[in-house]
Specification:
alpha/beta
């Protein structure tokens, strides 16, 4: 199948920044495991592992678990940064390195601070290589349920690694292809994954992309120069992001954003998200939940359809109106 070939290609691209030993070990996985692989976990002095379906699996070579060595970490960093660590330090000090084709390498180690700010991360001990994929159709049913003529504001939530970026990308693509102008803030080169200005992923023909800049500056540029009807962000993780989101809600464009959160109720308990929720910006919340059988997609509407609250909710301000299991 064409999809199988595509998923294997995504796997192959992600292994391009692995050391030779880790690369050889990765290719001992079955074809099915390669297709379903979500990320590689590379921890110094510990077993090399792959995440499949939200669960970690130790990778073996010649029948033995592969233990990550200093030279493996060094080689992965060298390949990911094209042998120029300092050129990527603006990302590294934030805990990641952007990879080609929308991938991302998480970085963990010793934080070096200067004037109360993180200057860099050294003695890198853990890497997390996320395998980027475009999965068409994940937002199709949700897209059909929303009245886009009303330009509703939408928040997508899940725990880390739950599929928020994949869902956001698909939703942006569908909105754009429906004829609505979208301004996309691709801060970490993950959503559109532009290279030389050309997106690696399909985000729709009516989408204008700002890559690499912070959300506030990117939003200002897009609104001034591209007059978008929607602004899309990924990963609201800092206080500054929340401030930008609230500010953007008064600038004429509707919003789509994602947040690391397990439930609607949690949004009101965490200070960074409570600010957003108290601003009463969002009309819909989409929750992605990992289960044993796959990922559940759940749609909540503010007040419920026709303003009726049937009690089927995580929080009495948003009512669940749709639930679907995606394998």
């Amino acid at each position: 199948m064409e999809m199988d070939k595509y998923l294997l290609k995504c796997f192959a691209l992600s292994t391009g920044i692995l050391s030779e030993k880790l690369w050889r070990a990765a290719y001992t996985l079955t074809e099915e495991e390669k297709e379903k692989a979500e990320e590689f976990r590379i921890r110094l002095g510990r077993q090399f592992a792959v995440t499949i379906g939200g669960k970690n699996k130790t990778i073996c070579l010649d029948g033995l678990p592969v233990i990550v060595e200093d030279k493996d970490i060094e080689r992965c960093i060298e390949l990911a940064t094209k042998s120029s660590f300092h050129s990527y330090n603006h990302q590294i000090k934030q805990g990641f390195i952007s990879l080609p084709h929308g991938g991302r390498m998480g970085v963990s180690g010793t934080v070096i601070e200067e004037n109360d700010e993180i200057r860099t991360i050294t003695d890198i001990s853990s890497l997390n290589v996320r395998i980027a994929k475009q999965i068409n159709g994940v937002s199709e049913e949700i897209f059909k349920m929303i009245d886009w003529d009303k330009r509703p504001d939408i928040l997508i939530i899940s725990k880390a690694g739950g599929g928020k970026t994949t869902f956001l990308r698909d939703l942006v693509m569908r909105i754009s292809k429906s004829g609505i102008r979208v301004g996309l803030c691709d801060e970490r080169f993950e959503i559109a994954a532009c290279s030389g200005g050309k997106p690696a992923f399909d985000v729709g023909q009516n989408t204008d992309i700002i890559s690499g800049g912070d959300k506030e500056k990117s939003t200002d540029i897009l609104i001034r120069s591209m007059s978008p009807e929607y602004i899309a962000f990924d990963e609201i993780t800092h206080e500054e992001d929340a401030v930008t989101l609230v500010k953007s809600s008064y600038m004429g464009a509707s919003l789509i954003a994602t947040a690391h959160c397990g439930s609607v109720d949690e949004l009101y308990k965490r200070s960074i998200y409570r600010k957003i929720m108290e601003a009463d910006i969002f009309d819909y919340i989409i929750k992605i939940k990992q289960s044993e059988k796959g990922r559940e997609i759940i749609l909540y509407e503010k007040g419920g359809q026709n303003g009726k609250n049937n009690g089927n909710t995580d929080d009495n301000r948003f009512v669940r109106i749709f639930r679907k299991l995606h394998i």
